[in-house]
Amino acid sequence: MAISDNPSQMGSLAMSLVVSPLVVAAMILRFIATRKAARRVGAEDWSAFLATVSCLGFNVLSIWCICLFDGRDFTQIPLDTLTSILKAGYIMTQFFPLNQFFAKVSILLLYHRIFSVNKFYARWIWGIGIAQTLWTLAAMLTLFFQCQPVHFYWDKLVPGGKCIDEVALLVGFEIPNSSIDFAMVALALVMLRDLKMRQATRWKVAGFFAAGGFAGIIGFLKIAAHFTAGQMSNTVLSLWGNAQMLLSILCCCVPIYNSLFS
Q1: Is the pTM of this model over 0.85?
Q2: Measured at the alpha carbon of residue 109, what is the angle toward residues 138 and 242, in degrees to the nearest 5?
Q3: What's the domain count of the chain?
């Protein structure tokens, strides 16, 4: 078999190969825009950079795993190859919450830079930031210790090993993350009312932030994908995770591009 014989693996591979250069380009343009605006590179820029690095780490491991699968499913892979895939997948899971954390922190720092003069908005920005931090810590610790002992994740022959139910893990992981996405979009739409700009510009900016809410919708699509993709659910989840990370990085980079067109 070959990767091209497996649509879900081919789709996931194509997504990784497309997303990787896109996020790098978005990051480069962000730094150029920052310099052109005569603004010092700051925490919000470096947070966006770390979000990009996390996305690339996820994709490098995703591509490697798909190449090892080579169009086959779990039942057709030699045990040593399967172990390598599961070890890579275990590390890979940690990159997603890191990407979400750094991308959203970058956006929240932008919010704070523009809107923190309003104490009510500042408190909401801090509140969402704290919620995102707590979610990230909980997600990473849960993913790290999702199996007991830890190495049962990639070695199912360990006697007495057990893992957290995949459905419970995915639901508990995605719903809070998506809720934070929706809260950030709602806050942005409320805060935009205080900015002095033409109505057409206001609608464009509002539309952009609302589009960022699709990253939250993807969380629910991932839950649905788990029930419909069968043995290839991890590959399909990787594809949707990539789309989520791409949107997050675009949302924290594109608002800075104004200076590129002035």
Answers
A1: yes
A2: 55
A3: 1
